[in-house]
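User: For documentation purposes, I need each entry recorded in a consistent format: the amino acid sequence on its own, followed directly by the corresponding structure tokens. There are two entries in this batch. Please keep commentary to a minimum and don't merge the entries.

Assistant: Recorded as requested. Entry 1:
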Amino acid sequence: MNTASLRRWAWIHKWSSLVCTIFMLLLCLTGLPLIFHHEIGHLLGTEVEAPEMAADTPRVSMDKVMEVAKARHPGLVGMFASQEEDDDRVWFVTLSSTPTSETGMKQVAIDARTGEALAEPKLDEGFMYIMFKLHVDLFAGLPGMLFLGFMGILLIVAIISGVVLYGPFMKKLKFGTVRDQRSSRLKWLDLHNLLGIVTLSWLLIVGATGVINTWADLLVKYWQYDQMAEMIAPYKGKPPLTELGSLQKAVDAAIALEPSMKMGFIAFPGTTFSSPHHYGIFMRGTEPLTSRLFKPVLVDAKTSEVTDSRVLPWYLTTLLVSQPLHFGDYGGRPMQILWAILDLMTIVVLGSGLYLWFVRRKTNEARMEKLIQAHQA
């Protein structure tokens, strides 16, 4: 590679890194507690603990679950009901003033075996909520998500340009060399390059999945326009329902259609993942990978008959696979620890990059000052 080409790559690496580094540092710092969100929730006492009972304890009707939830917040309507992927003992029911209102939402955790309300988790406060919002959209909604997605693209550019520059840089040095006997700047430069190449694959994975995750709202909206519109087309023009049928019968119909799958979450009529006339029953697989993938089953909210069901398109499948991979949710505790270590190493890479830029800028300013003084003399 000739000198001019190296300079171009160096310029690309420098400015792509500088523009995104502060935001990447923020994402690494906020992402670290999110890796251990369940564990931190237990420490803070915000996780809902279900009482111990026999594994084969019968579950109460979903109609009973909704009755209890609405009794806690009269006047509100159901939006979603969901369970943790590895724990079907608790239903988390989200309610609001209307099916599409995201302000003033309330959540009630209900024991799936007794029908008793266990807690009312706070949806918009607390340490983990702040970390999550900063990490996902900077408290700026869709514009914030798209902005962070652009920063993620710059990160990928910085990684690729860094790899291009790493080869020529390492021609005269053994891999892993850190010249700690020389200047502080050289030591941090070697450390920056070493940790950068060590975390290369992880950074590409987390950066790429992070970019995909910032498109989540847009992908869901496209799915509504594309697939959901086809699924609910026979109900177009029908008057809205004044009374909903049995939720339990709707759930039973979905389970009968997909007996080898388990319940993921329920979207009530009028919400993002359903229609004004349907319960959206989202089933999930039982294997480690398929448990992250959902299959929507639309059930008529009045007659409890299944009206349509289809596999999610590739773009939503890609999104669903990328979300747990981004946070290290696939391999249990060992993967969480690995993700945390790599996250900390990345913080060092980003911080050292800022330090090297600052030191070089300061050195260049000092040289310029000497040239000016010499010229004046």
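Entry 2:
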Amino acid sequence: MIVTRGISLTNFLVATSALGFQVFVLYPWHKRLDDDFEALKKEHLRVLRTVEGTRINERKGIREQLSELRKIRWF
């Protein structure tokens, strides 16, 4: 009876400690990681749009140069 009660109390203390650790340590850390990940996704999309705009401008410049070369019959 005493051994069973001791095991039950130990189990209760371990479970309570684990729950407290999850609530007070892991959850705030997870929340911060989630916020940082969202910020990283937004930054990635911003960089992707910038690169895409640059490539479009480069293509326009190349097309203009090709049309100029065709006008003077180089190509």
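Summary note for entry 2:
The radius of gyration is 31 Å.
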